[in-house]
Amino acid sequence: MKAKLATLFFFIASATLLAQTGNIRGTVTSNAGPAAGCLVQAVPTDGGNYRGLAEAAADGSFVITKVPVGKYNLEFTMTGFQDYVEENIEVTAGGTVAVTVKLEAPLNIMEVMTVSTASRRPERIVEAPAAVSVITSDELASQTSHGQLPRMLENQPGVEITQSGVYDFNINARGFNSSLNRRILTLVDGRDPAVAFLGNQEWSALAVPLEEFASMELVRGPGSALYGANAFNGVLNIKTKRPSETPGGYVTGSFGELSSYRLDARYAGLFGAGWSYRVSAGTTSSDTWSQSRTAAELNNGIFEYGPLPNQGRPSTPEVRPLDEDPVKSTYFSVRVDKDFFWGHTLSLEAGTAKTKRGDAVTGIGRVQITESERPYFRINYGADHYNVMYWRSDRETPVGQLSLTSGGTLYEDSYNEHAEIQFNYSLFEDQVDIVFGGAYHHQNLDTTNKQALTIGGTTFAPGSVHTLMVGTKDEEQTAAFGQLTWHAGDHFDVVLAGRYDDSSLHDAQKSPKAAVVWKINENHSVRGTFNQAFQTPNFSEFFLRAGATPIPFNLIELGIENAIGVDLPLNWQQVPAMALGNPDLTVEQIETYELGYKGIVGSNLFLTLDYYHSNLTNFVTDLLPGVNPNIEPYIFDDSIPAAVQAILRSTMQGSFGALYNGLSVNTDPTNPFVPLGHPMLTVSYTNAGEVDVDGLDLAFNYYLTPQWTIEGNYSWFDFEVVDPGVEESIVPNAPETKWNLGFTYKAPNYSFGMKYKYTDGFPWAAGIFVGEVPSYGSLGLNGTYDFGDHLRMTLNVINATDDEHIEIYGGSINGRQATASVSYRF
Predict the structure, then answer these.
(1) Stated pTM of the model
(2) Which residues contact 733 (CB under 8 A, 6 or more apart)?
(3) How many Cα atoms within 13 Å fall on the side-chain side of residue 108?
(4) Same domain for 171 and 306?
């Protein structure tokens, strides 16, 4: 009887609840047809907590069910369209409200596109006081199968991207690229995921799938005035989608050449009053373009790409073979958002990624990342006039990383943490906009071995050897920043900005910025900009202590003994050359003047032209012998006769060449690589050099119809060495010219595109890798097809003509990689 009463009560309660709700059903279209993917949100007019969400289907239809009785504003949001609000929709008990909306989009998306990176606040891209490129969510979604986020930027104006292996990417703009480049500050939802020790990005360790990225904004040119250290040549700001904007789930499977596959799963939903969440997980596997280079595998002592033009330079074989098993990664992340009815938003996110067997080209040779774990946490609270955030990003290498050149095992256990607050206000009836705030950054690094480690026949217990630097480092930085924008009438904006950075690693830095934007009319602007920026030496450049190529001092001693017939009391051994940091380094600096134009010509053409002149000083050199005065030179004991000393020195000079300038003595009793008092060859860093740079970027987007877009760009780069410093030559590791040309076609249920990239050949010099990168071209193809509302297929082909080429000297030969994916949405 009780069970029957309970059942009756349940049905009565359910009927009562349904009687207090209604439905909103409708269709949203645009001048290009059904507005598939448009986000529709029902917001109570009385400020209540309820939020009803729906995404328009392929035919533009949408439905929001179980909407509480009351009045609502319907908000329609879609990339490329101005937001639209249908006001005062009244929902009655048990009723269904029908709504039909047409979004009027300009033929040229740039008329409504806004960016936020250049000024730390939203503004039209046409009026931004910087050179900005944007990758939209639609473009990101069309290239999900390859899973290589940096690839999305390779066809943008002025961008220099190099790839070695599968995931070793370097992103740069405006010259002076390098292995492990970090001249572009990269942020993902405000978090910098860079590796603490080297400062580079670990692109295989992203903890969300490509489909979850909402946009990528790349600001080219110095950005330290608002972003601080390492915004030297630009800022890359990547944003993910909010869970409340993309409810539902999908499962995506990808496969392709290089025996690659990936599986991604994601689900987002709503709960409670204003709460939303997203859970993502995935795994990927791929063979690599990289090859092993031990003595047994090199072709007569040259790199695998010796037959390519201007190559064939003799190479020292690597000591360790490359593990050519597939490069693998797995990830998992959770995000929870809270939208408060007064308009504030709280976001909490945590995740981790694990990668295996990736490899990277570094200044001291190639390194294979046997295993890397990258957990992170982020919290953000945003309001109309302020934003507060904190994040922490860790890196652990539980089984170490392998230096293929020296054979050493290298460990890193580190974290970056960052806290920041930012305010923004409009004053004097919106004539003045101000942005200001402060930041605190902390880094902790430990490179001790996690497992037993054998060096030179001696086995060291876990935790007893610092494998990459001396001691544990604990450093911190603080900063204050601000920008004022004065709207001087309808046609001029005057921008003044600056930042003060203090650090335990270097002297305090001031980074000013000034700009004038002439808004000729609504769709045309001309700007002049002045910027100063700086790049901090990374922890390797400050504190490195790592073994490199083995040096046979024992054979030199034996040869002299045989020649003079006398036993020498030196007892020299074979020890590795030592790569050592320089704690007295200063920051690299850049000063840039820019002239730029952005304009919408007619209603079809978006055109940008940017010219820049830069002066760069205080380069951190490559590893060089004899440049660090902190390293003590080797002095023979008085017991060795002067004549024998002269023979020894002459022999070593002949054997070591220029490296003889780095002959020194080990005075560090904690150095596990070289006995105390033993001679060693050392290389280190110093600051030197001054260069002037001139460059120009020209780009266009031509919107032929709402479906067809043609785009292209051309970049020219030139440099003059004012002072080479201690290096024989300074090269920018960048081509003089490069260009891109392509098109896309978008229909309601399918799209396809083709883009071609051409890069001039150029010399490359970074650490031990010095050679020529021949010119190359690469054709990229992509296409998508939607089978109804739930199933999508994507095809991507990188380097479709299979034009084998290198992009970084010392890196891999890259060929074609075709991948396809199938995604089911629910």
Answers:
(1) 0.89
(2) 175, 176, 177, 178, 762, 763, 764, 765, 766
(3) 18
(4) yes
pLDDT at 319: 87
Residue 818 belongs to domain with CATH number:
2.40.170.20
Element housing 403 (H / E): strand 401-403
Q: Are residues 131 and 13 in the same domain?
A: no
Of the ranges 18-22, 486-490, 640-644, which one carries the lowest mean pLDDT score? 18-22
pLDDT in tens, 196-236: 999 999 999 999 888 899 999 999 999 999 999 999 999 99
Same domain, 178 and 211: yes
Question: Is 739 in contact with 699 (CB distance < 8 Å)?
Answer: no
Per the structure, how many domains does the chain have?
2
Q: What does the block give as tokens for 779?
A: 């054709």
Expressed as residue numbers, the domain containing 704 is 114-544+586-621+687-825
Asked whether the beta carbons of 232 and 533 are under 8 A apart, the reply is yes
Task: State yes or no: pLDDT of 3 exceeds 60.
Answer: no
Residue 562 falls in which region: left (phi positive, over 0), alpha (psi -120 to 50) or beta: alpha
In terms of pLDDT, which residue wins out, 311 or 714? Answer: 714
Walk across the sheet containing 184-188 and list its strands.
131-136, 213-220, 234-240, 184-188
Q: Which amino acid is at 699?
A: A
CA distances in angstroms from 453 to 333, 365, 466, 666, listed in the order given: 34, 21, 11, 21
Are 381 and 387 contacting, i.e. CB atoms less than 8 angstroms apart? yes
Q: What is the CA radius of gyration of the chain?
A: 29
| Residue of 208, 228, 282 lying closest to 251 (CA atoms) | 282
Kindly state whether residues 202 and 223 are assigned to the same domain.
yes
Q: Which residues pair with 515 in a beta bridge?
A: 495, 529
| Residues facing residue 395 across a β-bridge | 414
Q: Is 289 helix (H, G, I), strand (E, B) or coil?
A: coil
How many Cα atoms occupy the beta-carbon half-sphere of 101 within 13 Å?
A: 30
Average pLDDT over residues 792-818: 95
Mean pLDDT value of segment 748-772: 92
- Among 103, 127, 147, the domain boundary falls at 103
Distance CA(367)–CA(810), nearest Å, equals 12
- Give me the DSSP letters along 415-474: EEEEEEEEEEEEETTTTEEEEEEEEEEEEEEE-B-SS-EEETTEEE-TTS-BSSBSS-EE
Half-sphere exposure of 601 (CA within 13 A, CB side): 10
Sign of CA dihedral 402, 406, 410, 415: negative
Among residues 114, 105, 39, the alpha carbon closest in space to that of 74 is found at 39
Co-location of 47 and 137 in the same domain: no
Q: Of 103, 131, 151, which residue sits at a domain end?
A: 103
Among the listed residues 465, 477, 290, the one whose alpha carbon sits nearest the alpha carbon of residue 365: 290
Q: Which two tokens stand for residue 72?
A: 């609502």
- Say how far apart CA 414 and CA 397 lie, in whole Å: 9
